Amino acid sequence: MSYSIAIDGPAGAGKSTIAKRVAKELGFIYVDTGAMYRAMAVYFLDKGIDSKDEEGIARACGSVSVKIMYENGAQQVILNGENVTSRLRTEEVGRMASATAVYASVRTKLVELQRELAAGTDVIMDGRDIGTCVLPDATVKIYLTASVEARARRRYDELVQKGETPQLSVIKEDIEKRDYNDMHRDISPLRRAEDAHLVDSSDMDIDEVTATILDIFSSKIKN
User: Fold this and answer.
1) Residue 59 sits in which domain range?
2) Number of structural domains, the chain?
3) CA dist 60 to 35, 42, 128, 149, Å?
4) Average pLDDT over the chain, rounded to whole?
């Protein structure tokens, strides 16, 4: 029997950071859904399919297999048996991934692949609809959130550390807009699953959030 942890929540709540930490602690595979979209983009590019050709993209989806594995602690993304990890972060792939991620056929295929991964190994995934759509039967579901103010401050601090001069008010406004869009989109809107544990990280550090989720998981599998 494999275990799965689904972490959903708004932008800037720290989902990916926490998911990676929890995965490391438990020895689970962290499923980088963004990398999977990029791997599909690699396939479309290699096949010479235009990003605007929705029908061609849909047909191609049937021939795609994407798997995630780890070698020496580093994530490796395997596309139809080939390791394409080194190709995922190019601008060309990024543009193709962004352009094709909006298609229902691509999303449907990724959900299928993600469920296949979860069926065969212990995984943790983060996103907007993991617990509500991708893994509705996840062992544990977490809704990780934080106040708009806390998320804006974290983003502000990150940008300052990079030498940029951001405006906190602008960042806050962007987060509020993104929250609204995520919660009101037609396909798989962001919402808390009925059986998801609410974790508000506004006044918690990374270690505290990680420990909280580990405790929730431990309690679940003991019962």
Assistant:
1) 31-121
2) 2
3) 18, 12, 25, 43
4) 93
Instruction: Render pLDDT for 64-90 as a digit per residue (tens, 0 to 9).
Output: 999 998 888 888 999 999 999 999 989
Residue with tokens 């709540």: 13
Q: Which tokens go with 216?
A: 């929730």
What is the identity of the amino acid at 214? L
Question: What proportion of the chain, given as a percentage, has pLDDT over 70?
Answer: 100
Half-sphere exposure of 103 (CA within 13 A, CB side): 23
Write down the pLDDT at residue 210.
Answer: 98
Cβ(43)–Cβ(60) under 8 Å? yes
Question: Which CATH number do you get for residue 104?
Answer: 3.40.50.300
Using alpha carbons only, give the angle 147, 204, 11 rounded to the nearest 5 degrees.
40
Which contiguous run of DSSP H or E holds residue 145?
Answer: strand 140-145
Domain boundary pick from 106, 121, 136: 121
The rounded distance, in Å, linking the Cα atoms of 100 and 92 is 12
